[in-house]
Amino acid sequence: MSPIVPGSDATPLNVDEYEQYARAYLPKSTLDYYLSGADDMVTLKENRLAFQRLKLMPRVLRDVTHIDTSTTLLGHPVKTPVCIAPSAMQRMAHPDGELASSAAATAQGSCYILSTIGTTSIEDVAESSGSGLRWYQLYIFKDRELTRDLVVRAERAGYKALVLTVDTPVLGSREPDIRNNFALPRHLKMANFAHGKHAHRVNEVGLSQYTKELFDLNITWGDVAWLKSITSLPIVVKGVLTPEDAVIACDVGCKGILVSNHGARQLDGVPATIEALPGIVQAVQGRAEVYLDGGVRRGTDVFKALALGARAVFLGRPNLWGLAHNGQQGVEEVLKMLTSELAHAMMFSATTSLSEISPSYVRHEEYFLGSDATPLNLDEFEQYACAYLPKKTVDYYLSGADDMVTLKENRLAFQRLKLMPRILRDVTHIDTSTTLLGHPVKTPVCIAPSAMQKMAHPDGESAASAAATAQGSCYILSTMSTTSLEDVAVSSGDGLRWYQLYVFKDRDLTRELVVRAERAGYKALVLTVDTPILGSREPDFRNNFALPSHLTMANFTHGKHAHGVNQMGLSKYTKELFDLNITWNDVAWLKSITSLPIVVKGVLTPEDAVKACEVGCKGILVSNHGARQLDGVPATIEVLPAIVQAVQGRAEVYLDGGVRRGTDVFKALALGARAVFLGRPNLWGLAHSGQQGVEDVLKMLTSELAHAMMFSATTSLKDITPSYVRHEEYFRQPAKL
């Protein structure tokens, strides 16, 4: 790249070339002030490098004749999501300073944020920006009356929001400024301070001392509430980098969050803003608009930020480089350049409006690192899925009831069980095969019924069932599936498949599903008995979760049942279908209309297990519904031993919930389970790579189980007994002499 220097005829073609010009043109002290970051400037570099680690996933063969880059910010329309961040003392870059950059934003239909530490007054910028959208950035100063005065002036001058910078109790350690003893040039002033002391003292004492005199170390969230009490303008907090602070910002009534590390000028070592963005977007859950600044230099960077949940991006240094090059025209060119590059990225990605840009269009580079990035355990499959799937889908799959205590306990309870290995036995041949209701399987690691699997992967249940067949496992299809039971029968071929169902209010609907399952070669019916209603899953309530419009409940041929969940949401849909009046008599009724064996799913007590045997159930799936129904019930592995003891061999006992390792499978088998069924792990495998991902999950846990068997000197599943497991409490008892 040839340098762009003053006097050159070359027009800058990108933001970096504007920066080259500014580096050659601006005085060293000014350039150092604009360029510097805190300490070793690691975060300054990371703000850009983090964007480079994100790769775009374009789509093809869609009509991109009309590209619309417009959006709204706090209800106000803008033509572009590329906006101008507050940056101080812009007249050091060009004589017109803030006047030029605000006028440029208006001309390009953008949003401009004026810095309190500006060299042009609130009122003058309001005049230059005309009818354009402008926000005012401020600090809460030690002198609260000074803050109040600035707020009143901003309101009178037609600013539409206040942007409160919250990451500046003091200035960051910027060594170039310290070395230069940086001070505002004498011909300029802090134009927003009418009082002479505030307007000119920075020229005399330098910026560091000046801000120490003005800024308040004692600012808290209570001061944000105070600010909210003195203005009718919406408040945007700037400088948030953690989900925890983002949640508090929403709780105190902030309408916007600007994810920012202050251009990496405050604390070195914090994350790049694009890295912090997804966690904040997820935490906010739509309660406030989320924006980003830091590291944006290309339209593709804008696209990536929008894909990860930002509503707009704000440019700091690029605005200054445009100013330095050609005043208002230079800033306009920067805005046009990035908006044009964004439009190109949208065309290549087959997105015609900003609302179509979703996380699926971006992958972290680790995704492409081949074997080095292949998930090695189920948690890594989950990490991938959480980064890849849309937020509402992740929330639906991940959520548990209420405080999700039982959701955590399902896993923690396995960790409280310790293995007691045996040694010096021949483990040359390990056999993980068993039978389920008389049907042979190669592994006791099977797939539980989980709803709406096409939200995880386009092949959904077809891929998961085919994977189970390929690995010699058992697959349970959910009634609430996005693939019909007949299509799953085709995809699973001669594999072992069971069909999960509910007894609906409409008994004829239940009967019809039973008949279809029998005809399609399913070998058992799995009756879910813990769902008179849906559990209280707050993320789904907050999202008003509904099945995406392009999917259907494929097992229901009637239009109302097939599409109702898209229109009314899952909670209302299930209320219309599910029966509060289901009893053990209905289990007997179900048994009377089918020749298939019945497995009851959702049993957590020995008493209900005994009752299930008495009414003729052939299997009991110990399950708390993935902790999605009633919070506070035990982990499934904790109740398993008592249920096995109560059943006394009259029915096979299985388990789901919390299984993430082959050692978990071993523990469940040792305590009496005949097999374990995976819910969420199947979904994470699907999200990763469809059928292959699910096969990898099944192979992974079966292989880990085989390793546990080798270390425990058990060569077949029947060798695994309760003697191989001890609860951790066992080791806290005093030794008996």
From TrEMBL:
Gene3D superfamilies: Aldolase class I. The lineage of its organism: Eukaryota, Sar, Stramenopiles, Oomycota, Saprolegniomycetes. Its cofactor is FMN. Belongs to the FMN-dependent alpha-hydroxy acid dehydrogenase family. SUPFAM superfamilies: FMN-linked oxidoreductases. PROSITE patterns: FMN_HYDROXY_ACID_DH_1, FMN_HYDROXY_ACID_DH_2. Keywords: Oxidoreductase. InterPro entries: Aldolase_TIM, Alpha-hydoxy_acid_DH_FMN, FMN-dep_DH, FMN_HAD, FMN_hydac_DH_AS. CDD domains: alpha_hydroxyacid_oxid_FMN. GO terms for molecular function: FMN binding; oxidoreductase activity. One of its GO terms (cellular component) is cytoplasm. Residues 7-367, 370-730 form the FMN hydroxy acid dehydrogenase domain. This is Peroxisomal (S)-2-hydroxy-acid oxidase.
